[in-house]
Design brief:
With 200 residues, the chain is mainly beta. The protein has three helices and 13 strands; from the N terminus they run E-E-E-H-E-E-E-E-E-H-E-E-E-E-E-H. The longest helix has 12 residues. GO terms for molecular function: DNA binding; phosphorelay response regulator activity.
Length: 200
């Protein structure tokens, strides 16, 4: 699922790239998702059985009078799939600040491949750059709860949307291969959390 205005790295800088723009300024729309128990009853011509298909109606309203994006979901019952969709939408409702030198950038969470800490400093890794964050790894882990991010070691949080494969290593650890070719180590104490995240 990709919402308009959420591609590319955007940010505001003090002395950096003047072409960068605030992330939130790229959302001039309101989205209404209306989901109910709408079914189409169709007959299978081979077996003669009835098949039910669940449908979701999506309505997009664009207007210059809208000051900020709004997402409203109407449903009969918030089942697990719909709750995951809500978490997915929530992930795109905020950005994280990263710095390169004196320049500040506001990165959307989908741009961040993983977060790592070393020597008391926290870094955000995107497909193009490495940004330093003012927040601690624990603070970012809390902020990224109920998203595609999960902690895989004492010093690393990975975006599972960038995960390509996982392979076993010695000492009950795992090797995570990312879509950009990088490899990360999954500590055995964090394997259950990763498995749970991937099963959602």
């Amino acid at each position: 699922m990709s919402l308009p205005g959420l591609t590319g790295e955007q940010g505001t800088t003090g002395t950096g790239n003047s072409n960068s723009s605030p992330l939130r300024a790229s959302w001039p729309f309101s989205l209404v998702l209306s989901s109910g128990r709408f079914y189409n009853n169709t007959i299978n011509p081979v077996h003669g059985t009835s098949k039910k298909e669940n449908h979701m109606k999506i309505t997009l309203h664009e207007g210059l009078d809208l000051s900020e994006p709004e997402i409203e979901i109407r449903c009969h019952i918030a089942d697990p799939r719909l709750k995951r969709l809500i978490d997915y939408i929530h992930q795109y409702s905020f950005s994280l600040e990263g710095r390169i030198g004196d320049a500040s950038f506001y990165l959307h969470s989908e741009e961040i491949i993983y977060v790592d800490s070393a020597d008391g400093r926290t870094f955000l890794y995107s497909g193009k750059n490495v940004y330093e964050s003012r927040e601690t790894l624990a603070s970012l882990e809390e902020k990224l709860a109920n998203t595609t991010f999960v902690r895989i070691s004492k010093n690393c949080i990975v975006n599972t949307a960038w995960l390509k494969s996982v392979s076993p290593l010695w000492n009950h650890r795992l090797e995570a291969l990312l879509k950009n070719g990088e490899k990360l180590i999954v500590s055995r104490n964090y394997i259950p959390a990763l498995k749970e995240k991937l099963s959602q």
